[in-house]
Design the sequence.
């Protein structure tokens, strides 16, 4: 199972390379493979990490809020129906 730390780091590395977050539907295995691959690709590429992080934290917080709201709405509907 992919830990929250690895998922966030994989999204950060994907953001640095592609400028977007990883699709939410991707499996844990795919996220871990992306993390390994992009980590190797960005190793010692300090110039990319300086300007590439612009907007990542806001985008990832929005993703977390979206996931949380989806989970809460599902629990609320299932719990009270």
Sequence:
């Amino acid at each position: 199972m992919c830990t929250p730390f690895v998922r966030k780091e994989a999204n950060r590395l994907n953001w640095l390379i592609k400028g977007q977050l990883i699709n939410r539907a991707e499996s844990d295995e795919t996220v871990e493979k992306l993390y390994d691959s992009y980590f190797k690709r960005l190793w010692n590429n300090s110039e990319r990490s300086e300007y590439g992080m612009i907007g990542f934290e806001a985008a990832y917080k929005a993703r977390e809020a979206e996931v949380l709201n989806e989970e809460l709405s599902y629990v609320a509907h299932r719990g009270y129906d």
In short: The two ends are 31 Å apart (CA to CA). The chain has a mean pLDDT of 86. The chain has one domain: 4-80.
